[in-house]
Amino acid sequence: MNKRIIVALDFDSKADALSLLEQLDPKRCRVKVGKEMFTLFGPEWVKQIQAMDFEVFLDLKFHDIPHTVAKAVAAAADLGVWMVNVHACGGMEMMNQARQALLCFGDERPLLIAVTVLTSMLQKDLEQTGIRSTLEEQVKRLALLTSDAGLDGVVCSAREVTMLRALLPITFNLVTPGIRPEKSAHQDQKRVLTPKQAIEKGSDYLVIGRPITQAEEPMQILELILNEISKTDQSNNL
After folding, report:
1. How far apart are CA 234 and CA 231, in angstroms?
2. Could you tell me the CA-to-CA distances from 97 to 12, 65, 89, 150 in Å, in that order?
3. Is the dihedral of CA 14, 17, 21, 26 positive or negative?
4. CA-CA distance, 173 to 154, in Å (whole number)?
5. Could you tell me whether strands 153-155 and 5-8 are parallel, antiparallel, or unpaired per DSSP bridges?
6. For residue 237, how many other CB atoms are within 10 A of its CB?
7. Sign of the four-CA dihedral 58, 161, 201, 111
8. How far apart are CA 114 and CA 84, in angstroms?
9. C-alpha distances in Å from residue 34, one per residue of 81, 93, 131, 136, 152
10. For the chain: N or C, fewer Cβ within 10 A?
């Protein structure tokens, strides 16, 4: 089964995260470990999750000098994670060295993707950092750079997927956070779409956090989203 939902484990408590994981089916989703939980609980936490048969997207968004990022990405591969990411704005050389660091892992290597522009950012946020391009132009520039560096995909808003699908190979993965089912609160995400809208536009993987993790019945919400995605896929294939 193609597990297209990645559940974001944004907790400050192992007990709360484990309670959620025990309610989810590792055959139906993957999970994301970000900076908060990794900083609190370290690599052993990743191993504990993997021991429950969940595949892990290690979302640490590495951005440093090329040698340091290459070593960090290799360390993530040693952990056995399914996917790891870097910041595309780290540049071509950084991404090249990160990709090369994974070659020795062969078929066991994790997917390596790059963040374009965070889905919490709007045009004014880019301008405050000195970037004068439009948000869409910046996403396009960084996605093309990532593809040229030979990485497996990018993290982007689902609102940018249509644009990127027209520019990039079909095998290039588009991973989209900021996914909110209808009537869900947006919280700190700005450039959001529903799961149905994201799949229709061509997203490969949907990162969903609080709509699932804070639900009274997390697995029920996950199944509702999976059913919605399945129907959308069927419509797209007609």
Report:
1. 5
2. 32, 10, 14, 11
3. negative
4. 6
5. unpaired
6. 6
7. negative
8. 9
9. 13, 24, 26, 25, 19
10. C
32 is catalytic: no
Ordered domains of the chain (ranges, CATH): 5-236 (3.20.20.70)
Please, which pLDDT band fits residue 44 given cuts at 50, 70 and 90? very high
What's at 124, amino acid-wise? K
The length of the chain is 238
Percent of the chain residues past pLDDT 90, beyond the cut = 81
Q: Using the predicted structure, report yes or no on whether residue 185 has a pLDDT greater than 90.
A: no
Q: What is the pLDDT of residues 209-226, one digit of tens each?
A: 999 999 999 999 999 999
Structure tokens at 149: 């560096």
pLDDT of res. 182: 64
One of 27, 35, 47, 61 is an active-site residue; which one?
61
- Cβ atoms of 113 and 173 within 8 Å: the answer is yes
The pLDDT tens digits for 55-103 are 999 999 999 999 999 999 999 999 999 999 999 999 999 999 999 999 9
For residue 207, the cross-strand partners are: 6
**DSSP secondary-structure letter at 110?**
P
- pLDDT for 188 beyond 80: no
Task: Please tell me the distance from the alpha carbon of residue 6 to that of residue 3, in angstroms, as a whole number.
Answer: 8
Sign of CA dihedral 227, 233, 237, 238: positive
Cα 151 to Cα 55, 82, 113, 135, 185: the distances in Å are 19, 14, 6, 21, 33
Nearest to 85 by CA among 167, 154, 176, 148: 154
